[in-house]
Design brief:
Length: about 325
Amino acid sequence: IFGIKYGYEGLIPKYNHELIELTTEMVADIDLQGGTFLGSSRGQQEVDKMVDTLEIMNVNILFCIGGDGTLRGAHAIHEEIERRGLKISVAGIPKTIDNDIDLIQKSFGFESAVSVAAEIINNAHNEAHGAYNCVALVKLMGRDSGFIAASASLAVQEANFVLVPEVPFDLYGPRGFLKALRTRLEKRHHALVVVAEGAGQELFETESVERDPSGNIIHKDIGIFLRDKIKEEFTAKNFPHTIKYIDPSYIVRSVPANANDSKFCNLLAQNAVHAAVAGKTDFVIGYWNDDFTLIPIPMTVRKRKKIDVKGELWWNVLEATGQPVSMKNP
């Protein structure tokens, strides 16, 4: 069993990344570590060269661990394997803290991220209490889906506003966010705002779209934007306030797995191994209605899973925060 360093880069000879033999002794304690043992990378690689490497190494099963980008790469590798008529199974294991892989109830890493994010939200609430008219603003990961922000806020139930990519909002106007925030401060003299990194992108005035090496749109920094706009608005209207801005994004992503996530990861791995050894390929191990499933990779990457704004999760958030159902002006 070999570990490929730094994602798909490790299958490209020019990068000269180390190939690791995953012995029992080497992996004995990796469940106690945070982050990624093998490393990761972004950017598309040449599929034919990756399959060349697999063929030279005489690999018969390739396990690809990651989110939708990793799964798209896995499917491309499978197609090249099929074209060559090789006997190599390709198995996907869902690992993303954003929990945004479609048709999968939850992915490995999500619960650990929510647990740590909940602690940070609780501490931010304590900070908000420490100054008059204090706004504690916490930015969490969630590029296209706000599951971490929503779930962590429900775990603590101290957030007064949860802003997610699925729910657009206005800054100004009688129903805008800033008006609602000031109303909250006038009543309680403190507020806690949790914002997912992909929220409010429609508020930025930009003509160009930047993308990272994997082709994902690089979002503007909504956390810094909101911090500055809150300060600008309240200062202009002589409204006394304090802002505490907290961005723990990479801390949340790199924590060791909690007990439930560790168990879940083991079960994903066992099911993936059994399916691949049985000859299944081009699949991702899923989890739905508390059962493990095998899903064709193309089905899971057609679209991102998002919060259903008319579903139970979001309505629970609205009840817990007391924020307006809509912060859009007519």
